[in-house]
Amino acid sequence: MSSTSASGTRVAIVTGGSRGIGRQVVQRLAADGYAVVVNYVGNQAEADAAVAEVRSAGGQAIAVRADVADEVAVADLFDAAEREFGGIDVVVNAAGAMALSPIADLDLDQLDRLLRVNVRGTFAVDQQAARRVRRGGAIINFSSSLMRFARPGYAAYAASKGAVSAITLILARELRGRDVTVNAVAPGPTGTALFLDGKDEQTLARIAAEPPMERIGTPEEIAEVVAFLAGPGRWVNGQVLFANGGAI
What is the distance between the alpha carbons of residues 11 and 151, in angstroms, rounded to a whole number? Predict the structure, then answer.
């Protein structure tokens, strides 16, 4: 099995690639020469804008809608990547959902929706990736530093990301002999629009003071970690990388 398409271009699928960290990962991998499949579920305008940014810089990209928790839609997403670009080398699973509430007060329907995206979605995407990523490729999931922070109100989200970490570590071992690495990135607080929304200056200052770096991370910094795992970081496998400025 070749590790690149017939044209010599490596191909990446980025779920949740229309916004936030996923959007930055799309731009970073495209800058490294990847043809990128931008997955989205609801906001086609943002996905189309992400594709336009890549193409305006001379890269290759398409947008494909798929609910990551729907195994049929995920299979279609991978089919579209193979049909358009000839194969798949890197899968970045950046789609995710969040629900904040103390355990005593959480609506369990919210918990079900959260687990559907973060756990079932990761599993469905990784299942197709395990079957299709070519030799020399990489599968990169998204966990969270909130597993370590143990911050009140984040139990459901942190639990779902703990499951992502477990899936990651086991899949790396299941792919023995395939020359495909499997890792997870666990960001700390990162300055996306979603993170910043609704937080006052005092709250942001308190969060920024937690890591020794004394600031909030940027989507670009997380994308750099992903690019390392996707490319030169071949000896890193079966790991969860905490990218949080040393907060804990």
Answer: 37
pTM for this entry: 0.94
Give me the CATH topology for the region 11-189+220-241: Rossmann fold (3.40.50)
Q: Which is it for strands 11-15 and 90-93: parallel, antiparallel or unpaired?
A: parallel
- Identify the CA nearest to 94 among candidates 14, 19, 32: 14
Q: What are phi and psi of 39, to 5 degrees?
A: -90, 140
| CA torsion through residues 203, 206, 207, 213, sign | positive
How far, in Å, CA of 99 to CA of 106, rounded?
8
Active site residue 157: yes
Ordered by start, the domain boundaries in the chain are: 11-189+220-241
> Of 34, 40, 154, 157, which one is the catalytic site residue?
157
Q: What is the residue-level pLDDT of the chain in tens, covering all 248 positions?
A: 334 555 689 999 999 999 999 999 999 999 999 999 999 999 999 999 999 999 999 999 999 999 999 999 999 999 999 999 999 999 999 999 989 999 999 999 999 999 999 999 999 999 999 999 999 999 999 999 998 888 899 999 999 999 999 999 999 999 999 999 999 999 999 988 878 877 889 989 998 999 999 999 999 999 999 999 999 999 999 999 999 999 87
48 and 63 Cβ atoms separated by less than 8 Å:
yes
